[in-house]
Design brief:
6-stranded antiparallel sheet; 4-stranded antiparallel sheet; elongated; Translation Initiation Factor IF3; 4 helices; alpha+beta; Alpha-Beta Plaits
Length: 241
């Protein structure tokens, strides 16, 4: 009986020792993790670029109108002539067939009735469109001025505002991310210097979204040739003694 008691006491001692060792490990591990978490600094890095749009989309529409349905064939001929005049102007000023897309001619008619629902007037319209997609973004504005002069020739032309786009973001992303990371480290170094520590390696990094805006604008990215590209990164650095 006494021998069994001694065995039980020994086993109890072993279990207690194991329990203390295990709890000591977890306490130590928790303190280590807390220390790692405290010895970090999070900083934001900004990078900006001023770029130019590399693609322009521009639309021109024109229309002819007649008073009777019988005029439609002549309206169609007139529309084709106006369409050719516009295309010739575009080609003479630097655009080619690969940049010019001709839309279909759309027909529309309207009737105007009096109080007795009798038709007193009618209009028959043919409307065409020409779309230009080009990388000659600087050429668009000068040719637009010449298109407007077609009004003096009796052409009812609508010169829609072009959309300027920057599509080469992937080409500048690596350098901008490198710059943003460098700026984040500079900010972290300022913090570390005040705290009397040094900045070590990167613990984690989160890349922000890239934003493309018309130069000097908070919203919109299609009205101006000049664009501002911006990215902000969030980086957590280790701090060392």
């Amino acid at each position: 009986m006494e021998k069994n008691n001694q065995v039980g006491i020994v086993l109890l001692g072993v279990f207690l020792a194991c329990g203390l060792a295990t709890s000591g490990y977890f306490i130590g591990q928790t303190m280590f993790n807390a220390k790692v978490a405290l010895n970090t600094a999070e900083a934001k890095g900004l990078a900006e670029r001023r770029v130019e749009a590399n693609r322009a989309n521009w639309s021109i529409s024109f229309s002819v109108v007649g008073q009777t349905k019988e005029e439609i064939p002549s309206l169609y001929d007139k529309s084709e002539k106006q369409q050719n005049i516009i295309i010739d102007l575009l080609k003479k000023n630097g655009f080619d067939d690969t940049e010019i897309e001709v839309g279909v001619l759309n027909y529309e008619n309207r009737e105007f009735r009096d109080e007795n629902q009798k038709v007193v007037d009618q209009k028959h319209y043919l409307t065409g469109s020409i779309n230009i997609e080009t990388e000659k973004v600087r050429l668009v504005s000068s040719v637009r001025i010449k298109v407007n002069k077609l009004i003096a020739q009796g052409i009812d032309v609508k010169n829609h505002a072009p959309a300027y786009r920057f599509t080469l973001l992937n080409e500048i992303k690596p350098d901008m991310l490198k710059e943003a990371t460098k700026n984040a480290r500079i900010a972290a170094n300022e913090f570390a210097e005040n705290a009397g520590v040094k900045v070590g390696g990167i613990r984690s990094a989160r890349q922000g979204s890239f934003y493309v805006r018309d130069a000097g604008q908070d919203y919109g990215d299609t009205k101006r040739i000049e664009k501002d590209v911006r990215v902000v990164t969030n980086i957590t650095f280790y701090l060392t003694d």
